[in-house]
Write a structure and sequence with these properties.
It is a single chain. By secondary structure, the protein is α/β, with parallel strands linked by helices. The protein is about 35% helix and about 10% strand. It is built from 16 helices and 13 strands. Strands 1-2-3-4-5-6-7-8-9-10-11-12-13 form a 13-stranded parallel sheet, with no helix packed on it. Helix 2 packs across helix 3 and helix 12 packs parallel to helix 13. The longest helix is centred in the N-terminal third of the chain and has 17 residues, at about 75-90. The chain starts with 13 loop residues before the first helix and ends with a helix.
Length: about 425
């Protein structure tokens, strides 16, 4: 009697199995995180043989996974050894359009490797090299490669470092005018000198498709950049936070299409507030507004002066912000009178979902005034009133209106001296 033939599963090598899995997940391999895959190819001849063709034909390469706590490209010694290998691989990826190497540790050796292997493709439409520890001198070395990327739509070179000088911005500025497809530009952290400001503004004003600009902590003031900048009428998102802009109105003379505006940490002057409010009224599509730490001034001893008068002056214009969904006024020390003025506008901002009024010293009476406006804010999901000295009495008034805010998921009343009575209520 013939023995039954046992059916066995076909045997595949590790590389073949990996290719089958990738082929099942994504065809034609246009997008996935190639970081781990490339590392495997570097250390395994088998994987390199079967997977490299897939990598070479990919259009997206991302080595910046912030969720990975142990990221080998964030360790200087390992990054120095692996980046030349990565640069050589990038030079073979002729179809590459998206490259993200943000939040990694790129040493001068790594920069030279990128240039030596011509790793930055001129066909890129998306480039993110933000927060990579590259100083201005080494960024200038990359300048010829970046200058050839005339198809770029997204360019992010932001940095959290304080070592960036204006030299790179001056080198980049003439080439920005050639990037006519650019829609997003992030130069955050790069110093923009007065000499460079005029040229930069002129170049940017000729890029019609540019809608989103981030210029946080660029050392900007009320100088030469503002008049030319105001001609960028297609802007929808603008971040000018952490600069030294005291009279922001000239920046927005013709900009009316904004949906997102962040002008936090700029310390707007009392006279500048009125003119700024008049510009805000014209921004009828504004949904996100961040004015945190912008209506106060810091003294020599780092004490905040009251932002009450500034808020009262601005309040008459805030009632026109009917489309706002996110509003941040934290850290402005508006006091009781400021809170009362603000409470009169809130019923007109009924679409708010996120409202941050922390660190404003509104006190019990300010909390009572705000509580009367809360029933009109039925779409609110997040309300932050922490650090306001509202005590138990003010907290109780806020909580009693909680039932009207049916969408509320987070209410922060911390650091308010509420005490046991307030907690119990």
């Amino acid at each position: 009697m013939a023995q039954p033939v046992l059916q066995t599963e076909p045997q595949f090598s590790l590389g073949e199995k990996l290719v089958k899995v990738i082929g099942w997940i994504q065809k034609p391999y246009e997008y996935f995180d190639l970081y781990a895959l490339t590392m495997l190819c570097i250390v395994s001849k088998e994987l390199s043989y079967v997977v490299t063709p897939i990598i070479n034909n990919s259009t997206w390469f991302d080595v910046s996974n912030e969720k990975i706590k142990f990221h080998i490209l964030k360790i200087p010694l390992l990054a120095k050894q692996l980046f030349p290998l990565l640069a050589k691989q990038l030079s073979r990826m002729k179809n590459l359009t998206h490259l993200c190497i943000s939040n990694t540790y790129i040493t001068p050796t790594c920069v030279r490797a990128l240039v030596e292997h011509d790793a930055l493709s001129k066909n890129l439409t998306y480039l993110d090299i933000s927060n990579t520890h590259i100083d201005s001198d080494n960024l200038i070395i990359l300048m010829p490669s970046i200058a050839n990327m005339t198809k770029l739509k997204h360019l992010n070179i932001a940095t959290r470092s304080c070592s960036r000088t204006s030299d790179f911005t001056m080198a980049l500025t003439p080439h920005l005018g050639l990037m006519t497809d650019l829609t997003y530009l992030n130069l955050g952290g790069h110093k923009i000198s007065p000499t460079c400001a005029t040229t930069l503004a002129t170049c940017l004003s000729h890029i019609d498709r540019l809608t989103d600009i981030n210029l946080f902590r660029c050392g900007l003031d009320d100088g030469a950049l503002a008049p030319s900048f105001s001609r960028m009428t297609n802007l929808t998102c603008l971040n000018l936070s952490e600069n030294s802009i005291n009279t922001p109105a000239p920046w927005f003379e013709h900009i009316t299409k904004l949906t997102n505006l962040d002008i936090s940490f700029n310390f707007i002057s009392d006279t500048g507030v009125l003119a700024f409010g008049q510009r805000l009224v014209l921004m009828t599509n504004l949904t996100y507004l961040n004015l945190s730490y912008s209506l106060v001034h810091f003294t020599y001893y780092n004490n905040r002066e009251s932002g009450t008068l500034s808020l009262i002056a601005l309040a008459q214009y805030l009632s026109y912000m009917s489309k706002l969904t996110c509003f941040n006024l934290s850290g402005n020390n508006i006091g009781v009178q400021g809170a009362i003025a603000l409470a009169s506008c809130l019923p007109y901002m009924s679409k708010l979902t996120h409202f941050n009024l922390s660190s404003n010293n509104i006190g019990v009476q300010g909390a009572i005034a705000l509580a009367s406006s809360l029933p009109y804010m039925s779409e609110l999901t997040t309300l932050d009133l922490s650090r306001n000295k509202i005590h138990a009495q003010g907290a109780l008034k806020i909580v009693r209106n909680y039932t009207h805010m049916t969408q509320l998921a987070r209410l922060d009343l911390s650091y308010n001296n509420i005490g046991g009575q307030g907690v119990k209520a």
